[in-house]
Every structure is written in structure tokens, then in C-alpha cells.
Design goal:
Layout lengths: L11 E10 L2 E3 L8 E4 L2 E4 L8 E3 L4 E19 L9 H4 L2 E6 L10 E2 L3 E2 L2 H12 L6
Antiparallel strand pairs: 1-6, 1-9, 2-5, 3-4, 6-7, 7-8
């Protein structure tokens, strides 16, 4: 069986990944003390759990371009016999990659759709996805 991959060993790629963003505000229950007083006894604030801060907005995932580019050092192909496929997604041949800056063998595994040959392509795709735009 022969595979045709989008990227090859030794290719330099730019990765996009995600992080969680949220806004922190002061806890209104304990007035930033982390404790509340009930009948003269002090207790850890049940709202902020003693941290005196809380998440104000709903958490959301945001994509960003990985700081460094990487060199592909490992490519893995995944394919299922159709009798074992649960859905159409599994029927496709899937390639994943490992790059030197995030570890080969025990590092991050990158899907093909999160790798790009230039930083500009990666940045453009991040902006498109963060704005929930459809691919062109």
C-alpha cells in the first residue's frame, strides 16, 4: 500500500493550536477576601473557593499560531477496514504528524488541517476559524 501525504519528512511547517480565553473579575460574594463570615465564623467563599476572583465570561477556545515553526520528523497513517467504521469520518485515510519543536515520539500529534507551509497561511486560517468563517 502506498500513501500520498500532504507533507513529508523534513518539511518545515507552521502549526495552529488553541487555548482557552476568559475574563477574570473580582468576586462579588466575598468582596475579594476569599472568605465569608456567617454567625461570627469565617468560611472559604463558596463562589470563588477562596481565590477572590472568578471567571466573568464564558470560557471559549481561541486558535493561535504556534510560536515556532517545526520540522516534520514522524508521519502516521490511520485507516480502518470499512466493516469497523462507525462513521464516514473513519472511512477516510487520516495522516498525523509530529514535529521537532513539540517532540518526536512523545510530543504533540498534529492533524494535517492544523499545519501550513508558511506563517502567513497559518495566521490567515486562524483568523478565519476564530471568526467562524467557512473555508474558501
Amino acid at each position: 500500500m502506498e500513501f500520498k501525504t500532504k507533507y513529508n519528512h523534513g518539511d518545515t511547517v507552521y502549526m495552529i493550536t488553541r487555548h482557552m480565553t476568559y475574563k477574570i473579575e473580582s468576586c462579588p460574594t466575598c468582596n475579594n477576601l476569599g472568605k465569608v463570615e456567617i454567625n461570627g465564623e469565617s468560611f472559604t467563599c463558596p463562589n470563588c473557593r477562596g481565590y477572590s476572583k472568578q471567571i466573568a465570561d464564558k470560557e471559549k477556545w481561541e486558535l493561535y499560531t504556534y510560536q515556532e515553526c517545526g520540522i516534520i520528523g514522524r508521519i502516521t497513517a490511520e485507516s480502518y477496514d470499512k466493516k469497523y467504521c462507525v462513521n464516514d469520518k473513519e472511512k477516510k485515510l487520516k495522516f498525523t504528524y509530529m514535529v521537532d519543536v513539540t517532540g518526536i515520539g512523545t510530543g504533540s500529534i498534529w492533524d494535517e488541517n492544523n499545519l501550513f507551509l508558511t506563517r502567513e497561511e497559518a495566521i490567515t486560517e486562524c483568523e478565519r476559524r476564530n471568526n467562524n468563517e467557512r473555508p474558501k
